[in-house]
Design a protein that fits this description.
The complex is a heterodimer of chains A (370) and B (222). Chain A has 370 residues and is of the alpha/beta class. Chain A contains 16 helices and 13 strands. Chain B has one domain: Orthogonal Bundle (MetI-like fold), CATH 1.10.3720.10. The chains are: A alpha/beta (370), B mainly alpha (222). Chains A and B meet through helix 3, strand 6 and helix 5 of A and helix 6 and helix 7 of B.
């Protein structure tokens, strides 16, 4: 499962990540007759180093669920376990300082420079000034902002995308084992959002933090998540699983409607040419056919083939040499192949294949843009 | 009047010492009123922020006090506190409250909720959040209140001259000039009082620039 891939990644990380488990978590507002559930008996588990995306329509309780982890909202019932320890038993301030927190509006401190914004948690936990500054510079570089030109700026001097990067850097400052990200990329335009998503996935490959990520956007959920938790109104968990499984086997009409009629196409964006079993190049293959790099997503490849009105295209290897033939039929069968055996979850061998493919797709997509 | 120049410079130069003393007294009376008024207002504002339902009452009371003519209040207080410094300061302090409280409340209200959410989420304690986030971000509006209150108080100090020679600051010259039909005195008292108000206002503007280098004064691209 993706958990294996995640475990592998977390072994490479510097400080490791924590597993997160929701166990029967419920949040009700009001009392007696007027009580209404915001989150209802939510249970799932995220292995350390994995990204789990909570997705659902507005008002489904996803943000409430996220805020119960760092106890900005206290659950009515249930347990939230961080590396096996119930967060409700911990000192709330200490808990929050070791959980990264990124929100849509960023919430940078307007009166602090970028450098001091990033160093907020290190300052709170009493690092020396020198160590704070060094850490702030390190993180600014990590998120792609030149420390020399950014550390002394104030937030009002930044663009929306730059603010979000600073927000991510700030959340990472004390090297937290868990990050909570509430619609972190929703406030920027689609082009910047895609770049931030790709950069974040690239970062995550090295950092391997455990991440609970909230979005209302199913495409973002599929792209970012090792696991996707679809929530529905009333704060119920409609389905939990790897993105491909959610797309291939929606557990209910609600999930099927929520992921959209194009869920087949969406699945194709989880798989790349490199994952496809290639046909040998036919003798008739000529110059002028579309060509695909190994990191091309099958969804994009299909789109190119349809637009070019071509039966097939040429797959290139890492060196740019032709190594096989990609056809519309082969792309279609990539979906069909997965469909049958995946039905025999949980823990089936083929699930491993699909999930690993999903993981690879992300890695190459991120790498391709950098 | 009768053919006299507008300002008798000889009088002015002969009285530089006493004028300086009056300026000092003026600033002293104003500074006490603004400081005490600020302290009281801060407490009232803090209560109003915590218990929002009390805010309208605080505002109504402060406004009611502000409607009492200063002349009447000084005169009435003589019966209670005599010719003490309290008689001069109580009205001056009361008048600042209506200027301070709304500005302080607005200052804390102006702190964006996402900033508070982020501060909580990152593990600021209540006290740390107040000192390191809310207070600094409230500064621009709090200083705006200080500007209003100091300008207003510096003007009102002159009225306390009706309490006698030991009060009024530069108001002493305005009143004395009025009684003696001596324009020079009136002008000296009035213009210097205006000058003090302008200087105090500029001083607070400068203070705010120093305290809030982070405030966007102009939209900056990039």
């Amino acid at each position: 499962m993706t958990a294996d891939a995640a475990a592998g990644r977390s072994a490479a990380s510097r400080t490791g990540a924590a597993a997160l488990e929701f166990r029967g978590v419920t949040k009700r507002y009001g009392r007696g007759e007027q009580a209404h559930g915001a989150v209802n008996d939510l249970s799932f588990e995220i292995p350390s180093g994995a990204i789990c995306v909570l997705v659902g329509p507005s008002g489904c309780g996803k943000t409430t669920s996220l805020k119960m982890v760092n106890r900005l909202i206290e659950p009515t019932a249930g347990e939230i376990l961080l590396d096996g320890v119930n967060v409700l038993t911990e000192d709330v301030t200490a808990l929050r300082r070791r959980i990264g927190y990124v929100i849509q509006q960023v919430g940078l401190f307007p009166h602090l420079t970028v450098g001091r914004n990033v160093a907020v948690v290190p300052a709170l936990v009493g690092w020396s000034k020198g160590r704070q500054l060094a850490r702030a510079d390190e993180l600014l570089s990590l998120v792609g902002l030149d420390p020399a030109s950014y550390r002394n700026r104030y937030p009002y001097q930044l663009s929306g995308g730059e603010r979000q990067r600073v927000g991510v850097a700030r959340a990472l400052a004390a090297d937290p084992p868990l990050m909570l990200m509430d619609e972190p990329f929703a406030a920027v335009d689609p082009i910047v959002r895609e770049r931030l998503q790709d950069e974040f996935l690239r970062l995550q490959r090295d950092l391997a933090k455990t991440i609970l990520f909230v979005t209302h956007d199913i495409d973002e959920a599929i792209k970012m998540g090792d696991f996707v938790a679809v929530m529905e109104e009333g704060g119920r968990l409609a389905q939990f699983g790897p993105p491909d499984e959610i797309l291939a086997h929606p557990a209910s009409d609600f999930v099927a409607r929520f992921v959209g009629a194009d869920r087949g196409l969406k699945r194709l964006s989880l798989v790349t040419i490199a994952d496809l079993e290639l046909a040998p190049l036919p003798a008739s293959a000529r110059a002028g056919l579309p060509t695909f790099t190994p990191s091309t997503k099958l969804r994009d490849a299909l789109s190119v083939l349809l637009a070019a009105d071509s039966r097939g295209g040429i797959a290139l290897d890492e060196e740019g040499q032709p190594c096989g033939f990609v056809t519309v039929d082969a792309i279609a069968s990539a979906l069909a192949d997965d469909r049958q055996p995946t039905a025999t979850r949980p823990g089936g061998a083929t699930t491993t294949g699909v999930s690993a493919a999903a993981g690879d797709a992300k890695v190459t997509a991120a790498g391709g843009d950098s | 009047m009768n053919g006299e120049p507008l300002i008798r410079w000889d009088w002015l130069f002969a009285h530089l010492g006493p004028i300086a003393d009056r300026v000092g007294q003026h600033l002293y009376l104003a500074a006490i009123a603004v400081s005490v008024g600020f302290a009281i207002s801060f407490v009232l504002a803090a209560i109003s922020i915590r218990r929002r339902k009390l805010y309208p009452f605080v505002t109504v009371l402060a406004t009611a006090a502000y409607t009492i003519p200063s002349f009447a209040m000084f005169a009435a207080l003589v019966a209670i506190t005599g010719l003490s410094v309290f008689t001069a300061e109580i009205p001056l302090v009361l008048y600042t409250i209506v200027l301070f409280v709304p500005n302080i409340v607005a200052g804390f209200d102006s702190v964006p909720w996402d900033v508070l959410d982020a501060a909580d989420g990152m593990g600021y304690t209540r006290g740390q959040r107040w000192w390191r986030v809310e207070l600094p971000l409230a500064v621009p509006l709090v200083v705006a209140g200080l500007r209003l209150a100091s300008v207003s108080t510096i003007g009102l100090v002159t009225v306390s001259a009706i309490l006698g020679d030991s009060f009024g600051g530069l108001g002493y010259y305005i009143l004395d000039g009025y009684h003696r039909h001596f324009t020079t005195e009136i002008l000296v008292g009035g213009l210097l009082s205006i000058g003090l108000a302008v200087i105090a206002d500029l001083g607070f503007v400068l203070l705010q620039r120093l305290l809030t280098p982070w405030a966007a004064r102009r939209t900056v691209g990039g």
